[in-house]
Amino acid sequence: MEALKQELKENLIEQLNLEDVTVDEIADDDMLFGDGLGLDSIDALELIVMLDKTYGIKLTDPKEGRAIFESINTMAAYITEHRSK
């Protein structure tokens, strides 16, 4: 699980072009949207694409995405349970 969290942080930085953020600056329980990293709805779409391409997970319900993208911890737990790649 720790390796997956590390990979998620690296993918997040790369996919969203977060040039001023390092892996060490993202805590596993940091909020990704709002007061946390400050991601927005466009970033959410990028994360949905990343889940599909990297882990074979297709999200169809936007409400489901809100819960999944809450933090690195919630993303890692969801991927562990649902990944097909």
UniProtKB/TrEMBL annotation:
<dbReference type="InterPro" id="IPR009081">
    <property type="entry name" value="PP-bd_ACP"/>
</dbReference>
<dbReference type="InterPro" id="IPR036736">
    <property type="entry name" value="ACP-like_sf"/>
</dbReference>
<protein>
    <submittedName>
        <fullName>Phosphopantetheine-binding protein</fullName>
    </submittedName>
</protein>
<keyword id="KW-0597">Phosphoprotein</keyword>
<feature type="domain" description="Carrier">
    <location>
        <begin position="2"/>
        <end position="83"/>
    </location>
</feature>
<dbReference type="Pfam" id="PF00550">
    <property type="entry name" value="PP-binding"/>
</dbReference>
<dbReference type="InterPro" id="IPR006162">
    <property type="entry name" value="Ppantetheine_attach_site"/>
</dbReference>
<keyword id="KW-0596">Phosphopantetheine</keyword>
